[in-house]
TrEMBL record:
Low complexity bias (residue ranges): 44-53
Protein name according to UniProt: Alpha/beta hydrolase
Domain AB hydrolase-1: 65-284
Region (Disordered): 1-61
Keywords on record: Hydrolase
Amino acid sequence: MTTAAPRDARDGTGTSAGDGAGMRTVTCAGTAIDPGPRREVGARPDGAADPAPGDGPPAPGALPVVLLHGLRTSSTMWRAQVRALEAVGRRVVAPDFPGHGTRIDERFTRAGAVETVEAAVDGVGGRALVVGLSLGGYIGMAHAAAHPEQVAGLVAAACSTRPARVLVAGWALAARGIVRLPDHGAALNQLLVERVLPPSAAEDAGAGGFALHVVEDVLREVSACTPIEDLARIDAPVWLVNGRFDHFRGEERRFLAACRDGRLVVVARATHLVSLVAPERFTRAVLEALDELEHAPHLSASAAGRGPVGSR
């Protein structure tokens, strides 16, 4: 939800979560175990992304995808994923949260954001793979816990840290000062966007406008989120997807342990806005989630005790 200098990730007990190439996705069924190594996506020496699965026409009854954007951005941040998913025949919807994009004049509330997801899933048939980044990830977890019948699976990206009230209060204080600048922080926001995103991604992120005024409301609402408790209530498979240098990775092992049927995916060389800085590798993670949901539906019922999968 914000930008900061990269740092190594640590789990909830202060143990280093590790790093490096050749890591794997791991699964966990709600047990407080050391999940061991993870899969790191896109860690090829030549820097190229692995070919994405799912090419060709979709199977009958293919799951639709609902994409949930991050703080200050809008549905346009998902342009790369929408193009890629629609190219393989997926139905994709990316709604705007209250206070963002086409709904810039509305007041943001957590309840309103969850209702937005509920309406979006209803609009694509009542059940979908829900994919959220940062703010969208926290809202996605809250929605999945409240409306399990709508969620075939959840990709919660860049949101593996609890929004502690003290920390959020500090961010809110900073946001209050920034919005009082003559341009309401527009120049500072643009500078940050240009520094952390490739040009095409910066264009996509800004195409729907930046909701500079909404930050304080969002932080207040997000501080009441309970992601650990939400994850513990979700029966559907969950993919925690984080960039290697994401400052929101701090509790990814605790989040994974809370999942009844969870996987952790770390995207090599990526930062917080993983879908924007590594769009092909992020899309691959989404396609792999769809492939697993549609071709191995038994896995969610038999994940207990599973070892690492997807080694590269």
